[in-house]
Design goal:
With about 400 residues, this protein is α+β, with helices and mostly antiparallel strands. The chain has helices at about 5-15, 45-55, 125-135, 155-160, 165-175, 190-205, 215-220, 225-235, 260-275, 285-295, 330-340, 345-350, 360-370, and strands at about 25-30, 40-45, 60, 70, 75-90, 105-110, 110-120, 175-180, 180-185, 210-215, 240, 255-260, 280, 310, 315-320, 340-345, 370-375, 380-385. The protein contains 13 helices and 18 strands. The termini are far apart.
Length: about 400
């Protein structure tokens, strides 16, 4: 019950504040445990609020040495600590109803001047590839030699700072598969050998790369590699072909795979460059070797190697985006150390992944680069705004 002296005090203060209906007022008292430092406030934007109302949960992800992110089922939001000059009072059971006809007392748990602002961002998925690579599958005979911790689904979502939908999409892009409850990828060297066998089989059987019978390919290569490995290679570098009229495979008795010219071409281009000790070739020499290893009917195209190679004059060098820093200033510094001037088409594949939701690559170029015109070629080129020290 609220005493008469409190009601009298509320009446007096309400008159001073110009509040006519004191029955809709609430008296605040500071709780005896006031000042709870374990509580953090997060300002929910519309997307997060809808996700919480529809899905019923939001998840905070991040290790002790990482900045935390908050994830819905399909999106990731970075968190930025903000400060306000206003006092934010945390009051449980605060009533906002206009129907109450009784003056109420409420306890204030704490006062906050800081809160976290959520901003839509890309999921931080680089760790996923690195962690899975530690336990890459190299064949059944090598399974007993594994000395890396395998990753379950729960282990992945606890350590990777991304939404579940983004994680599943990335697993699919990596050709990841579930084995005995653990998520795995093919070891890079093992996958290279396995895919080479697949392409050699196409040449031997004179199969078109646009129509590869999955079941038969798995059966023929079974003595050399497990069937699931052959299937992973074919699906990773191609797509199942369906009959447009029936929605079924157009090969009787099994699925037909149409290999992707761009993906297979990229696979062999990277294989040739990464196998070289120096990682460099003359462009003409590389193009000849590259075209020579592709299945008949496939054409190599330098666009297939976007984000994998750097061309400087008549030399082509192996430079995968995955080898460059994730931090934008460091990424641009690393690129300009490799080559002082880049055209727009050359640099974009190496910085595309840095542009978050709502941000354009051109905005990044404007922030970190100076542009000028190369009058010899009448081409716009970019160089560093910052001083680059070799």
């Amino acid at each position: 019950m609220i005493g008469d002296h409190i009601i009298s005090d509320v009446n007096h203060r309400s008159e001073e504040a110009g509040v006519e209906d004191i029955l809709n007022s609430q008296v605040l008292h500071f709780d005896r445990n006031f000042g709870n430092e374990d509580i953090r406030l997060i300002e929910l934007n519309t997307e997060l609020l809808e996700a919480l109302e529809n899905d019923g949960q939001l998840v905070l992800r991040g290790d002790a040495d990482e900045n935390s992110v908050i994830c819905s089922q399909n999106k990731t939001f970075s968190l930025k600590e903000c400060t306000t000059s206003n006092s934010l009072l945390l009051v449980p059971d605060l009533s906002v109803s206009t129907e109450s006809a009784e003056l109420q007392c409420r306890n204030v748990l704490c006062t906050k001047f800081e809160y976290y602002e959520a901003k839509l961002s890309r999921g931080k998925l680089d760790k996923l590839k690195d962690q899975l690579a530690k336990s890459g599958y190299r064949g059944e005979e090598c399974e007993l030699e594994l000395n890396s911790e395998l990753m379950t689904w729960n282990g992945i979502i606890e350590t990777v700072q991304a939404s579940e939908e983004e994680i599943r999409k990335r697993l699919d892009e990596l050709g990841a598969f579930e084995m005995n409850g653990n998520w795995r990828v093919l070891d890079h060297e093992y996958k290279t050998v396995a895919m080479t066998r697949v392409v050699d089989l196409l040449i031997e059987k004179q199969w078109s790369w646009e129509c590869v019978p999955l079941v038969e390919a798995c059966r023929i290569l079974e003595e050399l590699q497990p069937c699931f490995v052959t299937e992973i290679c074919l699906r990773l570098y191609g797509d199942a072909v369906e009959d447009n009229t029936t929605g079924e495979s157009d090969t009787v008795g099994g699925v037909t795979i149409r290999l992707s010219e761009a993906k297979v071409s990229r696979f062999y281009g990277e294989y040739i460059l990464s196998a070289s000790i120096e990682g460099k070739f003359s462009v003409s020499e590389f193009m000849y070797s590259w075209q020579d290893v592709l299945p008949e009917g496939m054409k190599c195209d330098m666009d297939h190697l976007a984000g994998l190679v750097m061309i400087d004059k008549d030399l082509i060098s192996y430079l995968p985006v995955s080898s460059l820093p994730i931090d934008p200033p460091q990424r641009f510094a690393a690129l300009f150390m490799k080559k002082p001037k880049w055209t727009h088409d050359e640099i974009v594949p190496f910085v595309n992944d840095l542009a978050g939701p709502g941000q354009t690559v051109n905005a990044l170029l404007l922030k970190y680069c100076r542009s000028s015109t190369d009058y010899a070629t009448n081409t716009k080129v970019y160089n560093s705004k910052a001083l680059i020290q070799n």
